[in-house]
Design goal:
GMP Synthetase, Chain A, domain 3; 11-stranded mixed sheet; about 20% strand; globular
Length: about 500
Amino acid sequence: MNIIGNIIKNVIDITEKLTPETNPSESQKEVLKTLLHKAKDTAFGKFYNFDKILESNTIQKSFSATIPYFDYNKINDEWWSQLHQGNSNITWPSSPDYYALSSGTTGKTSKRIPVTQDMIDSIKSAGIQQIVALSHFNLPASFFDKGILMLGSSTDLIEKKDHLEGEISGISAHNIPSWFRGYYKPGEKIAKIDDWDQRVKKIAKKAKEWDIGAISGIPSWIELMLTEVISYNKVKNIHEIWPNLEVYTSGGVAFGPYEKSFNALLDRPITIIDTYLASEGFIAFQARPETNAMQLVTNGGIYFEFVPFKPEYINQDGSLVSDAPVLTLDEVELNKDYVLLISTVSGAWRYIIGDTIKFTDIERAEIKITGRTKFFLNTVGSQLSVNKLDDAVKHLENNFNIKIKEYTISAKRYDDEFYHSWYLGIDDIIETDLLVKTLDDFLKKANKNYRIARSKALKGIKVKTVPTSIFYNWNAVNKKKGGQVKMERVMNENKFAEWEAFVEKN
């Protein structure tokens, strides 16, 4: 009998039963009040008169009417830049303890996003909520005393005068609770290795010494790590090394495009749990097995707003037009795409995080990520979001029994005619003409706007297949291998020209 595992499982089950159900809408109203109260004496709070907003009978409406939308560039130029100059009490009391460095999917220049101690506490609280939610999943008691391998960026953060800097996964691992350290793998020494390849080699060498029950990280990098562990130890699949592996906690990007290639590394199915941890905070996690949607963390340190995702509200750079309408959690509708806005305990206000979501269950505040505001292919009216592109790629996988781990696309002009130019990461040999026709037919059926565009300005599709390693090398050269790095699904013409030159060279 697994005594420790049973004890932990029973504690989680009891905690879940004793935890009162929250009303997401009411929780959000309280979160907004708390944010405004705590920040009312900051430079930002005084400038936008938080005291007056708090006196309003409709605080949510007064809040949205008073404060403009901010993307990273706008809030950094107007407010956070003052923090970099040594000032404090700007958008949140005092000064941040950390800065999350995030190049996201836009290029080499890192964003420096404030991470306060209040945000660290908020992330820990959301993590505990996620652990408690494991009681809803049919996991064996033995799972609860196994190791948890977290593969993110290095925890060896950059030391500055009054703060530390690194990617959010490294900051989070740097702040893991003391009670968790016995379960945490690869351990502090290996986790501090900055070079991702060297870190993975160390993990591969130590793998047989660990009894891993769960792994966590971005799908593309987790796949590479598992492949290295399997290759180094000369086994057929990861369960020959970690027979008790039961859970993969995915995050950062949609898991769907990686599902087929990921499952090929396993001996048997495991539980996949989606999470939504961004540089700006812990936003959502999958709370029950009946769905792969994620529940917004509505009672933490983040207040959410939602702008309908329509072309007329989105600027070319992914920002919002100033008069775009906004909705609260009370006002959203099922299965409609929204641009997600957050206001946080790190001093982000009405901040465009860059993701689009849709609600699958409003009462539970459950969502799915549907894409990125910048990954919206609408150059010739096709109006293709990333979820539609992901669906098309999955259709190719199923139709031709192939694996497509990565892809990117751009609307490119050839002799004054527009084509959607696709690059697919395929390590199999396949005729591109077959891929072109299948892609085109699928998108015509799946998207009315694409079908109309194909009858007018969009001439057709072009497809090139390249080894998957090309995508990983592009990320390594342009940003940093591992961690929070994600591949651009949609590129503008200038970025696409760089990409094509890189592919040609490599």
